[in-house]
Design a protein that fits this description.
Elements lengths: L11 H8 L2 E2 L6 E2 L3 E3 L2 E3 L1 H23 L1
Antiparallel strand pairs: 1-2, 3-4
Length: 67
């Protein structure tokens, strides 16, 4: 049995997509971050949900102040 050197090749482009994936702080899935809301990285779906919720809260505050 002889020892032989193993030639390793690095595929830098193959890992580029994996490195950009982060865990969403809203739902916990591994996706590309779409937005940062209050210091939390969120996926696209959770960012849209947070945007809708913030618009509803602002809308409710305005209706309370007007009446």
């Amino acid at each position: 049995m002889r020892r032989q050197e193993a030639i390793l090749t690095l595929a830098l482009d193959a890992d580029a997509g994996h490195r950009s994936l982060r865990r969403c702080h809203g739902c916990g899935s591994y996706t590309r971050p779409a937005a940062e809301v209050q210091g939390r990285l969120l996926c696209e779906r959770c960012a849209e949900r947070a945007k809708r919720e913030s618009e509803l809260e602002e809308g409710n505050l305005n209706t309370v102040l007007e009446t």
